[in-house]
Design goal:
Blueprint (H helix, E strand, L loop, with lengths): L2 H35 L11 E6 L5 E5 L11 H10 L13 H9 L15 H9 L4 H12 L2 H14 L22 H11 L3 H7 L3 E3 L11 E3 L3 H4 L7 E11 L3 E10 L2 E10 L10 H12 L2
Antiparallel strand pairs: 1-2, 1-7, 3-4, 5-6, 6-7
Helix pairs in contact: 2-5, 2-6, 3-5, 4-5, 5-6
GO molecular function: hydrolase activity
Keywords: Cell shape, Cell wall biogenesis/degradation, Hydrolase, Peptidoglycan synthesis, Signal
Family: Belongs to the peptidase S11 family.
Amino acid sequence: MSRKSFRSMIFLVLIALAILAITINVYDLKINFSGLFGKDKIDDYASKYICVLDRENGQIEYEKNADSRAYPASLTKIMTAIVALEHIDDLSAVAPIDVATYKEMVANNASMAGFYGKERVTYRDLLYGTILTSGGEACNSLAIHAAGSVENFVKLMNDKAAELELKNSHFTSPEGLHHKEQYSSAYDLAKLLDYALENGHFKAIFTKGTFKTTATADHPQGIILESTVLSKLAGMPQGDTEIIGGKSGTTPEAGQCWATLGVKNGREYICIVMGTPLNDISNPDMKQMDDTLRLYDRID
């Protein structure tokens, strides 16, 4: 072999070795990045605000803008329900639907449980109507019967927020219709829900799939109320997580919001997703549900 040919061969070998070294380094880099930012680490969630909380130890499993203020929409009703429960002695007592706020909710196209004005329902009916079907007439009637007026009740809501040190929360109504001064954060709502779930009545309501209300003159057979969260999850693959309760909320300003309670490996987790873009309010794409399922899946 000539000296020239030998030098050419050595040059080609060196190039080959350099390419191999670069390939190995890139491969190692990809492995390292996948370990750090693998499929369960990359933030490609549609929701703008997220908080996943381990109820057993209070650890945050995942967060995204968790302390940022956001519109809570009907997740507000988590606060409404727990405040009402702490001011009600007998859930079986009659608490008729308030006519003025009923008309107001209808005029504002709020979500409704299906009760009529003056219908003689019970506090229990109102609570299930507030959480399961997000009824505007239900939560406002709760507020009036529990505190004498909506204004008094909203003060109780903000007092509770201060007591729980919800530093990025302020409430202006029990039902959560959009108002620029009504806001919360994913972390605050996770903390609030964790507190509320310590109340046995609240947890029973929050984790109920369906509930039949008391028979009344207006509804002799009662009304079947259905969870707006659990009904959407029926038949959906959830892996090794069981989502056992939830509350939904949607307005054009707030986007799509979900607060859920899931059980995985015998532990309870809270998942709050907020600000998921709303493509069509009459036919939503349910990206908040997709995010929720993937967030539970990422928990070890």
